[in-house]
Amino acid sequence: MSDFYQKILENNRKWVASKLALDPHFFTKLKDTQKPPLLWIGCSDSRVPANEVIGALPGEVFVHRNIANMVIHSDMNMLSVLDYAVNILKVKHIIVCGHYGCGGIKAAMGNTSVGIIDNWIRHIKDSYRFRKHDIEAIEDEKERFDRFVEWNTKQQVLNLSVSSIVQQAWCKGQELSIHGWVYRIDTGLVKDLEITFSSHENIRNNSIYKLDFEYAV
Ligand code: CO
Q1: Which of 13, 46, 48, 184 is deepest in the core (most CB within 10 A)?
Q2: Ligand 1 center–CA 95 separation, angstroms
Q3: What is the pTM of this model?
Q4: Is residue 101 helix, strand or coil?
């Protein structure tokens, strides 16, 4: 067995001991239920760990991560997490957190095939296409990359806002705010993109994405 593998098992024992030293009920009080106020949708990147970034303890954040923190409306994995978070756990906030230097975004901005992931990052290329003119007008390569990371994150917040699950929650009057953040790996700080939506009124009446829930529920 590798040293690393042994080390992580040992780390677990040490972590448990350190938590119990501060609070003997730390784990037992979590066993029956969870009531996290937040759903985090982030990138799978190992450098952007949801709990650590926001100082959340076990029980405080429900987490979904995939490559480039995408909200794809036909992704059953994302939809199942979102439905459970909104309709069962009744989270009050959802944060889509992108990060500067995202490899998925970088790959989507180029033409090199990177394998099966081409089909996942195709969704990022679709959001690139919406913004192609603005993105390609930015001359500095790093600046262009950073701005597109932000735009892609905003696009995922918009995708979330028009999802059937979020729209229905808002129509029922449920308290739910969705936000977009971008994390900077080399500082540890997040930037709030100030794209927060809290109600169905954020979706224009003439939007083709707007859903009416007039049928009997
Ligand atoms: Co990433």
Answers
A1: 48
A2: 15
A3: 0.95
A4: coil
43 included as an active-site residue = yes
Residue 68 has which token pair?
């480039």
- 99 catalytic per annotation: yes
The 10s digit of each residue's pLDDT in 75-99 is 999 999 999 999 999 999 999 999 9
How remote is the CA of residue 32 from the centroid of ligand 1, in Å? 33
Task: Give the residue among 71, 102, 101 at the shortest CA–CA distance from 178.
Answer: 71
What is the enclosing helix (H) or strand (E) of 41?
strand 38-43
CA-wise closest residue to 152 among 100, 207, 211, 89: 100
Looking at residue 130, which CATH number applies to its domain?
3.40.1050.10
Residues 75 and 102 in one domain: yes
Q: Answer for the pair 124, 108: CB distance below 8 angstroms, yes or no.
A: yes
Q: Do the strands 177-183 and 61-66 form a parallel or antiparallel pair, or are they unpaired?
A: unpaired
Q: Encode pLDDT of 16-73 as tens digits.
A: 999 999 999 999 999 999 999 999 999 999 999 999 999 999 999 999 999 999 999 9
Give the residue among 125, 85, 87 at the shortest CA–CA distance from 105: 125
Q: Catalytic residue at 47?
A: yes
Q: Is 45 a catalytic residue?
A: yes
Structure tokens at 90: 């009744």
Ligand 1 ion: nearby residues, β-carbon < 5 Å:
43, 45, 102
Taking alpha carbons only, the member of 193, 190, 198, 135 closest to residue 166 is: 198
In a domain, residue 216? The reply is no
Q: Is residue 13 part of a domain?
A: yes
Query: Could you confirm whether 129 is annotated as catalytic?
Result: no
Q: Name the residue range of residue 117's domain.
A: 34-209
